[in-house]
Write a structure and sequence with these properties.
- The protein is built from 19 helices and 19 strands.
- Strand 4, helix 8 and strand 5 form a beta-alpha-beta unit.
- It has helices at residues 18-28, 32-40, 46-53, 69-81, 94-109, 121-124, 130-139, 154-162, 202-216, 228-237, 244-259, 268-280, 288-305, 308-316, 320-352, 376-387, 413-419, 443-457, 480-486, and strands at residues 9-12, 85-89, 113-117, 143-147, 166-170, 184-186, 364-369, 391-397, 400-406, 426-429, 433-439, 466-469, 471-472, 501-508, 513-515, 519-526, 529-535, 552-563, 566-578.
- The protein is α/β, with parallel strands linked by helices.
- The strands form four sheets. The chain has a five-stranded parallel β-sheet, sandwiched between helices. The chain has a five-stranded mixed β-sheet with strand order 7-8-9-11-10, sandwiched between helices. Strands 14-16-17-19-18 form a five-stranded mixed β-barrel.
- It is 41% helix and 20% strand.
- The longest helix has 33 residues, at 320-352.
Length: 580
């Protein structure tokens, strides 16, 4: 049996200065607990706290500050005015699909002639390649714009140029030393780019270019905000940091998407898919969690095991019947993806039995025949979560292998793979995720090199997950107003995690119930205060009989629990330990 995830370390922020908390209480008229939380998150002045709680689209950075954006926008303006054909080339994940749809529909709304294309993972491979260039030639395009790809596609950018297309690369992936021979490269990670937000997703970069194009064509600025729904979808799905302007765009984008319900918006496909997700989740409102765990997986499923063009059509269609049919199809594809993923993870874990030693290995590399390359990224994420190690999963087919890498916060997987580059035919990605191609006979050497890179970079403490708690809190402070105001701390995700609280010396108000064999449900009691709690996966670590009358410390967040249309507030417990 393979070992499980190590117990997490608890880290609690230092108590905030009482005088700073009192100043926020006085000026903002908020509860002491909320003000303690604001100070703990470094929003410790009245103006800073107000700006965080009420972000404004007016505070977004000027797209003209992106290196290359002016050149790209001027070329798109000319294409729109001269009615040239533009091919928008995305990627087969949510970021690339959403970004391609956004830029295509916006160019059309500006009066341009735009067509969207996304490669098929199995047939065409990743990035701009032969299929994308051929599509541009066949469509008669004179401009080819990449979204979420192109930075490392030097050969095919050059070939597109040789075929008579001006290539505009919009991307966010880390560039190599050599930059592509494009007419314009718009990538906040490229050398010399002084744009303040370096962590934009690909769709957000495309949004900025389109925003600048619209400005040059004299269109009103508020037209842009109605397209932030796709930026929000892509930003959450791509797991970039939800801080700074990313948080602003996601917050407004979720608002745009939410107000399209229940009536279909100008994007009936997205509305139809949201309706499927709300039904599956018991009617919960659209938030970053629903996007991350329900909406994005359904769109990604098309790129993983189906046809990503169907997800692209879903976001571009204006036909309600087609939208509903495509949403149903993506829903079915996602169920099949889940089945394949479970089987792959089970087989990978079985392959690691006797091979992986947590006391020896600070990373995991596992390979197997017959694994679907479309799900190995998710499989790598599942295994990384289970072992809390950087993971490479390789799907072998004949003499070739296609791999996906996923990491933990302390480990830059792209940097490590760069060190292992001689063992691979191709790789690319960023700090926390990467893809690669490797020949079968090179897999053992890649494994040894990757494990060596992990040994060099990771210490013992890096190999334990950390629960970064914000503040200690009493259950009697968690009233309705607290939870209502807590919503303004969202949207939550990487870079802006959901607030995590610690309640000390809590007792269980009765024995916990085991749900589905893995989860615990119970009521926490502290003095006269009570709070219903749900602990996902905790039954595997805490047998119900072990949580008796002794007081415990509980690390938890707050969440809405919607059941049959009725919503209540409950604690989502991350960990439990005996009180001292």
């Amino acid at each position: 049996m393979t070992p499980g995830r190590p117990r997490p370390l608890w880290r609690l922020r230092p108590p905030p200065p009482p005088e700073t908390v009192r100043e926020l209480e006085r000026t903002l008229k908020l509860s002491p607990a909320l003000c303690r939380l604001l100070v703990a998150r470094n929003h410790d002045t009245p103006d800073g706290a107000k700006s965080f709680l009420r972000p404004r689209v007016a505070d977004l950075h000027d797209p003209a500050d992106l290196l290359g954006a002016n050149e790209a926008a001027r070329r798109l303006v000319r294409a729109v005015q001269d009615r040239e054909r533009v091919l928008v080339h995305g990627d087969y994940d949510v970021d690339g699909i959403a970004g391609a749809a956004l830029l295509t529909e916006w160019l059309r709304a500006l009066g341009g002639r735009a067509e969207a294309f996304v490669p098929n993972r199995l047939r065409d491979g990743y990035d701009l390649g032969e299929a994308g260039v051929a599509q541009g030639v066949a469509s008669g395009a004179t401009v080819l714009v990449t979204v979420d790809c192109g930075t490392t596609a030097h050969e095919w950018v050059g070939r597109a140029g040789d075929a008579g297309m001006d290539v505009l690369v919009t991307d966010h992936h880390r560039p190599e030393a050599e930059l592509p021979p494009a007419l314009a490269l718009v990538n906040p990670s490229q050398p010399g780019c002084r744009y303040p937000s370096k962590d934009l997703c690909g769709a957000a970069v495309a949004f900025k270019v389109a925003q600048l194009t619209a400005r040059m064509l004299g269109r009103p600025a508020d037209e842009a905000w109605q397209r932030l729904d796709l930026v929000a979808l892509a930003t959450i799905a791509d797991q970039v940091a939800l801080s700074g302007e990313n948080r602003v765009m996601v917050r407004y984008g979720l608002n745009v998407a939410s107000h399209a319900q229940p009536r279909p918006s100008a994007r009936p496909g997205l509305s139809a898919l949201i309706a499927r997700c709300r039904k599956a989740s018991g009617g919960r409102p659209l938030d970053s969690g629903m996007v991350a765990f329900q909406l994005a997986p359904r769109i990604n499923a098309a790129g993983r095991i189906g046809d990503p063009a169907e997800a692209l059509r879903l976001l571009l269609t204006r036909d309600l019947d087609e939208a509903v049919a495509l949403a149903d199809k993506l829903d079915a594809t996602n169920r099949e993806r889940q089945r394949i993923e479970r089987r792959t993870v089970d087989e990978a874990l079985e392959a690691l039995n006797g091979e992986y030693d947590p006391d020896r290995d600070r990373a995991v590399v596992v390979s197997g025949d017959g694994w679907h390359p479309g799900v190995i990224g998710i499989a790598a994420s599942r295994i990384a979560e289970r072992f809390y190690r950087p993971v490479v999963v390789v799907a072998l087919d004949g003499e070739q292998g296609r791999g996906s890498a996923r990491s933990i916060p302390a480990f830059d997987v792209h940097e490590a793979l760069t060190e292992c580059g001689r063992h691979m035919e191709r790789f690319g990605g960023h700090r926390q995720a990467a893809g690669l191609d490797v020949r079968r006979e090179k897999v053992p050497a890649l494994r040894e090199a990757f494990l060596a890179a992990a040994r060099q970079r990771l210490g013992e403490e890096d190999l334990r997950p950390v629960l970064n708690a914000d503040i200690e809190i009493g259950l009697d402070e968690l009233d309705y107003d607290f939870h209502r105001h807590l919503r303004h701390f969202g949207p939550s995700g990487r870079g802006n995690p959901k607030p995590l609280f610690v309640a000390r010396r809590v007792r269980l108000d009765g024995p916990p119930a085991v749900m589905g064999g893995r989860h615990l449900r119970f009521r926490m009691a502290q003095g006269r205060a009570r709070l219903t709690a749900f602990g996902p996966g905790l039954a595997e670590r805490f047998p119900a009989e072990s949580l008796g009358a002794r007081p415990v410390d509980v690390a938890f967040s707050l969440a809405d629990n919607t059941y049959r249309g009725h919503t209540t507030v409950e604690a989502r417990v991350r960990d439990i330990r005996p009180s001292r």
